[in-house]
Amino acid sequence: MNKITFLFALLSLTGVLACGQGSKEVSMESSADEAMAYDLKTVDAAASPPMTLKSVTTEVETGKLEAEKLNQGKKIIRTGNLSIESKDLKKTKTAIDALVKRVNGYYEQESTTTGTTYTNYNLTLRIPSSQFDNFLEGIEKGNDKITEKSIQAQDISLQYYDLESRIKSKRIYLDRYQNMVANAKNVKELLEIEEQIRQLQEDIESTESTLRAMKDQVGYSTLVLNLYNSDSIIANSDSGSWLKIKEAFGFGWELIENIFIGAIGIWPILLLLLATFIGWLRYKKHKKTK
Predict the structure, then answer these.
(1) Which of residues 116 and 127 earns the better pLDDT score?
(2) How many CA atoms are closer than 13 Å to the CA of 228, on its beta-carbon side?
(3) Nearest-CA neighbor of 229 among 149, 289, 285, 147?
(4) Which of 9, 17, 117, 154 has the most other CB atoms within 10 Å of its CB?
(5) 76-157+222-231 fold
(6) Which residues have C-beta within 8 Å of that of residue 15, sequence separation ≥ 6?
(7) DSSP per-residue string spanning 201-226
(8) For the CA atoms of the chain, what is the radius of gyration?
(9) Which residues form the DUF4349 domain (predicted)?
(10) Domain spans of the chain?
(11) Cα–Cα distance list, 204 to 137, 182, 196, 248 (Å)
């Protein structure tokens, strides 16, 4: 009986110890799982910052801005130089005037140089960029000789859209500062806000002025045109002998003018010579009388 009781007690103690060991192992495994889960959360948090409404909005706006830039057209400034030799300058100039009017262009600058045997028109034209190629084609279809032609194109898309973005950003800041005026706590803070507003307004006006100039250059192409008649064309219109006679007559008349002007310049000497000559004649006459 005592042996049975002792054996039963021994078995009970062994079971209790086994259960305690199992609970300890389960507890350790649970703690390890929790530690691992915490570490994963920490890594995820460090790798990916919390997504806020502001960051989402910024990403969306940035994506929209890039998409808008891709969809917007190129901003190209086109310029050119053209020299035309004409047999009938008046007729050619009239035709160019009509062509400029037809494409809704205008003269930015117009000057004429005229010499003895030549006449030049120096013209600066502004042509709508959409009509620039048509205008050049109309010029080339004429009967006159094109002696020089050069066309340039400059892509300013990056600078153009950058200025537009800057203006939008500065206007946003300007609105914020203007809203802060009513909430200024003291005079110093008010003056600081007003100074920021003034600087932003000046920056916006300056940037808008630059952008307007770019728009004008993009919208209207510039063409510098030199229209002239050559010396040979003028010379062929007159006979060779008649031209020589005119040149000889002109040279003789110029010589007479120079002599007359020179005589006026040395009149004291001429007067002295005349007095000497008259005195010599009187002396000679008086000598004969004796």
Answers:
(1) 127
(2) 17
(3) 147
(4) 117
(5) Alpha-Beta Plaits (3.30.70)
(6) none
(7) HHHHHHHHHHHHHHHHHHHEEEEEEE
(8) 49
(9) 74-278
(10) 1-49, 76-157+222-231, 159-220, 238-289
(11) 40, 23, 12, 68
Tokens 């003034």, residue located: 198
Q: Which helix (H) or strand (E) holds 67?
A: helix 53-71
Residue type, 179: N
Residue corresponding to tokens 């203006």: 167
Helix axes 89-102, 132-140, angle to 10 degrees: 160
pLDDT class of 71 with cuts at 50, 70, 90: very low
pLDDT tens-digit profile of 16-54?
444 444 444 444 444 444 433 333 333 333 333 443 333
Parallel, antiparallel or unpaired: strands 119-128 and 220-229 = antiparallel
Mean predicted lDDT score pLDDT of the chain = 76
pTM of the predicted model, to two decimals? 0.54
Q: What is the 8-class DSSP label of residue 49?
A: -
